[in-house]
Amino acid sequence: MRRIKRSLTVAMLCFTLGIAAQNNPGKKTVVVVDAETQMPLPGVTIENTTSNEYLFSSEEGSFELDPKQNNEVVIKITYLGYVEQEIIVDANDIPSRIELEVEDNLLDGIIITGYTRQSKARTTGSVAKIEAASINTVQVSSVDQALQGQVPGLYVASPSGQPGTPGRVTIRGIGSLQDQQTTPLYILNGMAISAATFSSLNPDDFEELVVLKDASATAQYGSRGANGVIVITTKRGDNEQKDLRVTYQTQYGFSNVNNSKWDMMNTDQRLQFEEMLKDPDMPGWAYSRNNPYKIVNGQQVLKTEQDYQEGDYKLAQLKQTNTNWKKKLMRNGITQSHNLTFDGGTDNTQHYTSVNYFKQEGVLYNSDLERFNINSNIQHQSGRLSTNFFVNLASINSHVSESDFDVSETNPVASLYFALPYENPYDKYGNLTPGVNRFGTNALQMYQDVTRKEKQLRGVVGSNFNYELTEDWKLTSTIGVDYAKISNTHIIKPDTYFGDLVEEGGQGMYSQGDQTNIGVVANFGTNYKYRWDAHEIEAIALMEMNRQKYDYYGFTGYGLIGGLDGNAGGTTPGTPENDFIPKISGSTSENLLLSQLALVRYSFENKYTFSTSLRRDGSSRVPSDNRYKYFYAFGASWNIKQENFLEDIDVLSMARIRASYGLTGNANGFASDFGYRRLYGPGQYNGQISLVPTTPGNPNYNWEMNRILDIGVEFGLWNNRLVGEVDFYNRITSDLFVDRSLSITSGFESIADNMGKIRNRGIELRLSGDIIKQSDWNVNVGLNFAYNKNKILSLGEEDEIITEDYSIHKVGESLGHFYMVRWAGVDSQTGAPLYLDKDGNVTTTFEPDNAVLVKGSYDPAIKGGFTTNIRYKNLEVNALFSFIHGMYRLNTGEFYRTSADPNYRIYNQSTSMLDMWQNPGDISNNPGATHPRYMTDRELQKADYLKLRNLSINYKFKDLGKYNRYIKEINIFGQGQNLITWTKWRGQDPEDDNNWYEYEYPLPRTFTAGLKVIF
């Protein structure tokens, strides 16, 4: 009955306004917009409380108002997600624009999903918005690092502290056996961009980020939406800003490494350890008075008193050197940024342009990044045609650390641990003295002799077009190009320690590789949105083309000439006689994705919404028989708070239930763009150049498919002082991309195939509440929590697939579960290491066949974060914590620094090795030095952590007196990134994107102070 009365009221109001429009020239159009973004709000309810009539804003956020002459009208404006507003309108002073403020903490507002935008109250999918203000000032060299802890289910694992290294981003778990196929799709202003392009953007240009997680939200992207979608909207000009607004922001600070877990031996401890080893090749025992022998011509002879005195002198000399390798090999890296923006606009044209410079020195001397960004966004309305043109250009120059992720002396992080404290890197003339097993000195020498440089030129250029055929029907199109030119250079100088080690001639090398990636996106379609009474229907149909092209060529030349070793002209032409034969490589590839899409949504008031999508994708990467696939989704939402039975429950201010189910896919797991075909490459046969098979091909290769069920509840309590969102999901990935082993008689080791299923099932929670909510004083806290259970349901005909030496994919277990021999301690009588066999029996024999499933995997089951925002007048303090639980990693560093056997004792050791077993009856977890050391689950450690990821303090000066004519606002702020980590992990930082720790570049702490001035 209430619906009928409201419909009749709306109809009468529309009829009355129509008659008035014909007879009263005073009718005026009013636009309702978001106060912060200035975006028009469609479907806003406008209630004339004077006459008890209702009206709704159009797609452009407009409605027509016509008060009777000399009368005042009281109108109440309500929109889910915004503060209700009641205003008095005078016939002689009708406003042209009404701004609505977003209601604090309410899980609502306008959501942009790439193909459409609408109120979250009318969405049926699981979507989460990241306000750009939370990342605009964060000082990170790769913007994805700023997303950790922001949204439940969104996990960012940073693999390296190397400036510019992107993180591994996953949404709702890992759904593929291939790690590189877990990255979400990134959409920038409606067009798809690569993950590398996203990481190179300037976060200060972002207006908002929206994370699409379930099928109802992601199925519109078909085969590209299997791992979730992140939609980025860049800042735009303000049509109310008639005059040009100029904003300048700068930050300056430094980065260093948290060494709270550092426990390596100093000189005294190292010499004591060597004396315990009784190794005559080490000075701690060779010169010790407890050692009665010396080695002469390979034979033991008794020492004389002179030998003892000489030994005392040499030990005293060694003890004068206690090199702090952390200070030698690492530094405080300087970070700075400068950002200048210009924006403004009129009713028809709005513009925004920014120029950004960012420079960050790495904590290792041979690493840094320098980035220059230009971003521009222009919107224009001309009659029925509206356009948006955007361009983002980035020039990135970086120096890259040698051999990151490598257990070798060419990795300076490894040398940091390997180097002995009594090693003096310089001779008496101050020159470096590199050599065999001089790990610290060699690392210092490498800083001088080895250079790795990377230059990137990235550009995104795109346009969005909308043409209104009628008030309800418009044509839409997006065209764009994502371009990247990447050049990598590796130089080893001649006539140096490392130049002499180059196998081809021993005179250094110059290597360069250049690759070009071009992605082209074009779509064209139509959007129909019609409202009548309390009903709304939206339909979208479009065609889309995505094309990717890749080219690469590279060469390595040898025999560098001193003075010319900085460019390719310094290489010596190769001949069979001089051993300087260069190496040449190159490749090219491309793929094409053609799609057709249909989206339909029906909403009744803000109460019921039903949606469906259907997409047909055709990929050139798939064999012709399986080339085209259909992807779909169904969703529904119900705003139950608007039902009569909940209207009188005042404690409940908002309640919404939604559910969705759908199918998405992935076509990017093939070995290459043409991996389904038998491929050939250059080779030799019978001494002659020929083509040889390189991959067997598989004409039956198919898509990887994702079926996702999601059920969610959103609620607000006590007038939305506390709001929350809970989601349950079940995601099953089938037809997994697997490299299936083949018989060696086939000539190939494996074949790319589809088999098996993975399930990711979990629950997500988001809470946000105002503890204090006053005009001058506000305290807000928030929590997001996600639990995901990853399980392999099938591996085709296989029960398990061993992926590496110490991990396995096994049916019934999570991906990449660790598979190792178990450690059982140390025999107190003999000092021998003890192990468990497959049956759990203690043995002294290490046998790889005794490996079993142990502890866990590297993908944490629990992820989340919590925030605190405190505001008092113009002072604001924000803190972001992130946490994970259930992550295990193999700590190879722990293995090397707790090994006394002859293979590893040349490296410096942990101070815990001073407790090594020496005599019968000793109780120790470190075996005797005479026993060999093997990797077991002893090195498998929990990598759980709680991090204070960001802390910022901001003070705004707005009342500047007479200077407000020139300066509208001044912000002074300071912040810290990656400040404190609480963890049991025995290393510099537990955070990483893989299951092994191999002396990765440590994640730094960054402290900056900044200034923002708005003119």
TrEMBL record:
**Which Gene3D superfamilies does the entry link to?**
TonB-dependent receptor, beta-barrel domain, TonB-dependent receptor, plug domain
Q: Where is the TonB-dependent receptor plug domain?
A: 120-229
Q: Where is the signal peptide?
A: 1-21
The UniProt keyword set, sorted, is: Cell outer membrane, Membrane, Signal, Transmembrane, Transmembrane beta strand, Transport
- Protein location: Cell outer membrane
Q: How does it sit in the membrane?
A: Multi-pass membrane protein
Tell me the Pfam families matching this sequence: CarbopepD_reg_2, Plug
Q: Which GO terms describe its cellular component?
A: cell outer membrane
Where primarily located? membrane
Q: Which family does it belong to?
A: Belongs to the TonB-dependent receptor family.
What protein am I looking at?
SusC/RagA family TonB-linked outer membrane protein
